[in-house]
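REVIEWER CHECKLIST
Item 1: Sequence provided? yes
Item 2: Single chain? yes
Item 3: Sequence as submitted:
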Amino acid sequence: MAVENRKKKKNKMSVPLMIVLVICVVVLGVSIWQLSGIFIEYKKGTDEYDKLQTYVSEEPVEEPVTADTGDGENEDGTEAEGDTEEQVQRVAISELQAQNSDTVGWIQIPGTQISYPLMHTGDDSYYLNHTFSKKLNSAGSIFVETLNNGDFSDLHTIIYGHNMKNGSMFAGLKEYSSASYLVTHPNVYIDLADGTHAYQIFSVYEAEADSDSYTIGFAPDETYEEYLKTIKGRSLYDTSVTVTKEDSIITLSTCTKHGEKRFLVHAKKIY
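Item 4: Structure as written out by the authors:
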């Protein structure tokens, strides 16, 4: 009799254990399904942007290329101008624009995964979850602030991109938390319709989403000069790069790991 009671108790205890086990299995299955969906979406975004790399013909150069027009006199007797700066067309911007008219350029940081088309539209939220091909995807696109001019003619132009878990888009910006990383990756290259332009990084730091670091619409005056001093002073370390009110700058912005703050990289135009 005592043996039978023990068996009954054992059987009764196995029921809740089975329920817990089933719940765990279901939760695990749902989690795996959700993760697989995320990874598949990540891969679709990555594959799309990898294919677009074919529109980039070469690596950016440290200095703009010059064209030798010769010395002395021209054939008509006028004085020759000598060497002139020639903008290199290394990205087929016009071909990209034929596929998506929102394309204004290409951004690249050599030695990193950051090499993407630049989008600009009247709605800042659109490219948060749409790729270059306008497909819905959490990777989104790298895009220029709506209130900025798409030709980078503003003194301050802001560029946004997601901090993706697979390291794509602007996830690599966080590496600039280390001063040694800046030494090996000092410049950002922006290709526009008129050729390649280089920007030298002068400040990196975390900021609030509503920080005055996002101020645009400057004129080359004392207000702009004070703004530059402020954002340079916020840098996590001294970059030894000077910036003045005559300089045009760009800001690369992405979310931090938990999305509570933003990680900003400021760079000034050097050509």
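Item 5: Key structural point noted by reviewer: The mean pLDDT is 86.
Item 6: Recommendation: ____
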